[in-house]
Amino acid sequence: MDKFYNYIDGAWVEGESYTENINPSNTADVIGEYAQASREQAEAAISAANAAAHGWARSGIQARFDALDYIGTQLLARKEELGELLSREEGKTRAEGIGEVARAGQIFKFFAGETLRPGGEALPSTRPGMGVELTREPVGVIGMITPWNFPIAIPAWKIAPALAHGNCVVFKPAGLVPGSAWALADIIAQAGLPKGVFNLVMGSGRVVGDAIVNSEGIDGISFTGSVPTGRDILAKAAARGAKVQLEMGGKNPLVVLDDANLDIAVDCALQGAFFSTGQRCTASSRLIVTEGIHDQFVAALREATAKLRVGDALKGETQIGPVVDKGQLDSNMRYVEQAVAEGGTLACGGELLDGDGFYMSPALITNTTPDMTINREEVFGPVASVVKVKDYKEALRVANDCEFGLSAGICTTSLEYATDFKRNAEAGMVMVNLPTAGVDYHVPFGGRKGSSYGSREQGAYAREFYTTVKTAYTRSA
């Protein structure tokens, strides 16, 4: 069986131990054995990044452009190969896997361009004979801890801006999906970066993650994952003055009003709730529907949901792949059972399916109320609940009654309601007649309340986290 090493200080390094990468569509399929770094290896990667930081921060923008452009070109050229690998290890369909790799390539291409647009300002001083320059400089060494649900896109939208703005990187991917991370690291290793600028350390959060979070050699941490872990990272990193960026949970509402186009509303709910097996922080897990369209909407969505084809992620006919692992599958089923126990109606799905992987039928739960567990906690699976409300005013109140605030959607043909929702939805991203999941790579990504902390990710706004501002005065006379 193939073994895959960590990448530290410009060299591939064997791990202290190895873990098998299992295909959730077929648990008999082992993709490979991936190195698990020790704490000492994680610390060596941090030291290497610090040694490289000064030189990379002062490298020419053409060198950064060339490296990022090369990485983007390679990802796009290999999107089918790497997309199949991604789907094989994570479980999203092959088409979704290819799309995710293409997005990663586009992200690197975008940030290659950003290297040529560093920005800055020249201002007059309030004092005669002086000038003021505002410039941006790299933060230093960035520790990155990424989740399993987007194993190449999320690393891309962290690594690309970090490198573009002159930072060095220590990257720890999720243990469930090391294959995509390793493939990305292999491409980065060939991009001509000085040794130490980029480092891959695969391993557990308890060992590698803890070393990154608590190291004085890490100047900033970008994390995407669970709320408890994010809050723990914030407390520890902030205590030593490190910069922190967190993307955590979501419990995203999709409001469907009486005047909505029914076909569009059903399509938005279906895609937002169930595609990518519902394993997206932007998934439409709460469907808030006004009473005039409620019964018609539920009937149409139930019919569409029942027709979704669940199966092996690599088969062309599959629309919904497996859940990522048994632990997540068991968690999903417990949430479905709890929703029914609290008074909800299982209108469709929510059943374990036969196969060699971790399969369940997408679950639609009706007759729920806002206070039920299913409407308060993030499930992170193909499970959606319906809340019936009287009118738009109640729908907006229910949509905002949540500790999270990542993405929110509305289906309506009313310009008045759409405009009001865009203004008053307590979320970082708002969708009108679109699924709550699915965002462009050149615009900011992030939320409010318990969903996010710190600067936005993606697009030009990424520079807010990956740079620090310097103000310089010059006497001219």
Give a short summary of the structure.
The protein is an alpha/beta fold. Helices cover about 40% and strands about 25% of the residues.
CATH topology of the largest domain: Aldehyde Dehydrogenase, Chain A, domain 1
- Low-confidence stretches are none
How far from one another are the termini?
71 Å
Oligomer classification = single chain
- The overall average pLDDT, rounded, is 97
- Our estimate of the beta-strand percent is 15-25%
Query: Structural class, from helix and strand content?
Result: alpha/beta
- Shape category: globular
If you had to describe this structure to a student in words, what would you say it looks like?
With 477 residues, the protein is of the alpha/beta class. It folds into two domains: 3-248 and 451-475, Aldehyde Dehydrogenase, Chain A, domain 1; 252-432, Aldehyde Dehydrogenase, Chain A, domain 2. It has helices spanning 39-57, 61-77, 79-90, 94-114, 153-164, 178-189, 205-214, 227-239, 262-274, 291-306, 326-341, 392-400, 415-424, 463-466, and strands at residues 3-4, 6-8, 11-13, 17-23, 26-36, 121-124, 130-138, 141-145, 168-172, 198-200, 220-224, 243-247, 252-256, 284-290, 345-348, 363-368, 383-389, 404-405, 407-411, 429-432, 448-449, 452-453, 467-475. Strands 15-16-17-14-13-19-20 form a seven-stranded mixed β-sheet, with helices on both faces. Strands 10-9-8-11-12-22 form a six-stranded mixed β-sheet, sandwiched between helices. β6 (121-124) and β7 form a beta hairpin. The mean pLDDT is 97.
